[in-house]
Amino acid sequence: MSETKKTAGANAGSSAVQKAVVVHKTDAERTVSVAGGFVEFRYYESILQDAVKATYLFADSGNSIDKKTVQQGLPMNGGETFQFSAKDNNDTELTIEMIVGKTASVSEENTKQLMFIPLSSKAFAINDTKNVRAMFPKNKISEHIKTLITDYLESEKELDIEETSNAIKEFGLNRRPYYMLNNFSKQAQPAGGEGKTAGYFFFETSDKMIFKSIDSLFDEEKNPRKRSIIFNSTPDKSGTPEGYDYKALTYDKETANKLEMSKSGAFSTATITFDPINFNFKRTILSTIEDIVEDIDEKIEPLKTAAKNLVDFDPKLIKEFGRTSMLFDNTGTFSETTEGSKEKNLDIASVYSQSIMRYNQVFASRVHILVQGDFELHAGDMIFFDGPSPEEDTKNDEVDKESGGLYIIASLCHYITPDRTLTKLTLIRDSTGRQGNHTRR
What we know:
By secondary structure, the protein is mainly beta. The protein has helices at 70-73, 122-127, 141-152, 177-187, 214-217, 258-264, 348-361, and strands at 2-6, 16-23, 31-33, 38-46, 53-61, 81-87, 93-100, 104-108, 112-120, 135-140, 158-161, 167-171, 200-204, 208-213, 225-230, 246-247, 250-254, 268-275, 280-287, 323-328, 365-372, 382-386, 405-416, 421-429. The strands form four sheets. It has a 16-stranded mixed β-sheet that branches. A three-stranded mixed β-sheet has the order 11-14-13. A hairpin with a 7-residue loop joins strand 2 and strand 3. Helix 3 runs antiparallel to helix 4 (177-187). The longest helix has 14 residues, at 348-361. The chain is globular and about 75 Å long.
């Protein structure tokens, strides 16, 4: 269920497109600017998206290059490099270099055609043509992540890699780099996590390749907030309330479907592992609810999370674990000696269950807001957001004590046209209730 509100007459100003150039696949000196016919640019980042994506729409005249269209004269048919830069209303520059996926003509006239270009990052293009066959020696997962990004995806972007506490050995087995990066994300535990905070996100932004634990993304000391934003229904001429960076233009609050969360294992999970060494089965249970199953003698320790007030579910409606996974244990799988044949490569039962729960919990609360174009924001950034209190008086200045507080940006879209620049944000968290202060104190 969601609730959408808009401010009256709020529009962000136009963006200054600095550069929009297509470079020939094999001849770097052969380029053509498509900034002159610029119609629309959309740029996307997400913590659930391995690579950044974008789309560019422009009017291609018949005299763009060598008295031909760009598509015919360059030619442009996919695989070319696309260089783009623009400034937002605060003169913050967004500069990216991406790969043209294909070209599509939206409409055609005698003198020009409207061309649509889907764009992806260089790493995304390389991933589909690169297989990992090497053996990764026993080392921290964070070190394996660095190797995959630099050696296999050949990324030259800055690395923002959070160190992991657990070390494993792994074979490439002819798999894609993205597959291994995401598989490692589910197996990783942060340093000092006390064994109860598994689960990382791997994603790309315009300037970084990021590998961060879920809990550190929600920790303001490790992930300092970028903005404090408010939405209210007071006229724009009244200005932004003190302590906030600016006002949101629209606001849409989405409540969590707790039945779906429970079914997906957000509150309780069980993992059954089979050990091929001794043919034993073992059940490992993690839960946010103590004593979830009556026939279990041992006390279940509630899972530690970053949430100050975790979105909960009526314990009486949970009769058993919401999700059960069956896995092979990896005892001795990667051992090179007889002595090491009894060693586990990874405590897969507890780590896997922790990851399942945390991935499902972090999307418990969602807020969608539209703001003025802000190119300083990226997926994974922390935001303090306040919405209006749901009272009869829609002009009140009271903030919502339930939905207000700290969030992280799950996804963003920069929308640029010749007339305006906007940024759409989806904010998420695993908590309820307003914690902290919008003034950063």
